[in-house]
Amino acid sequence: xxxxxxxxxxxxxxxxxxxxxxxxxxxxWREALESCGIKLSxxxxxxxxxxxGGLFAAALLRETGRAVTSEQTEELQKRHGQAYVHQxxxxxxxxxxxELLDALTKADVKWAIATxxxxxxxxxxxxxxxxxxxxxxxxxxxxVEHAKPDPDLFFAAADRLGADIHSSxxxxxxxxxxxxxxxxxxxxxxxLSGGYGQDELERAGAYRVYQDPRDLxxxxxxxxxxxxx
Length: 229
Hints:
The chain starts with a strand and ends with a strand. By secondary structure, it is an alpha/beta fold. 43% of the residues lie in helices and 14% in strands. The chain has helices at 22-35, 42-46, 53-64, 70-87, 97-106, 119-126, 152-161, 175-183, 198-203, 213-218, and strands spanning 2-3, 10-12, 19-20, 92-93, 111-114, 137-139, 169-172, 187-191, 206-210, 227-228. Helix 3 crosses helix 4.
């Protein structure tokens, strides 16, 4: 089946949207926090996944009643990155992720990946999708002033593609992705593959909610990608 290119650009989150890595990040954050003497239940950590590292660390530390310093935030992010590297061998592409990106590419539909992860380990994750530097449009945390829930990553991705952000489609798995989409005044689509419930994603502004990339691909016509006979 072929698809027409009369469709907006797609701007994808990475973790929990294209790769099954959310819970590896949760465990990495727990390890980082405990190495600094901070104990939090994993469910509390999970609720913050998808935020920028700085906001994430600040929000978690606030729950402990401890003051947050910029040095603590930087150290936590560093330790999280180190711990995530050890989790990386267990990360896999989500069902249908590579097929979805391939289908969009073959249909001449523009797409980009905008991740809150920093480039030093985001590219290790991207390689699981067969994506290396120069293979796709990718915006990482290092390239913008603020990460999600600020919309900077998606603005930068649309700009890099030469696409209109207001007619693009943001695809993410967390409420923070969808909040960023709303702040960018663009359409948001949610995936359940990051662990958030359908009602949460819809309340955050999702136009549609699908199980994973494969489910989105099977319903791609609902995004305005029309089959061509």
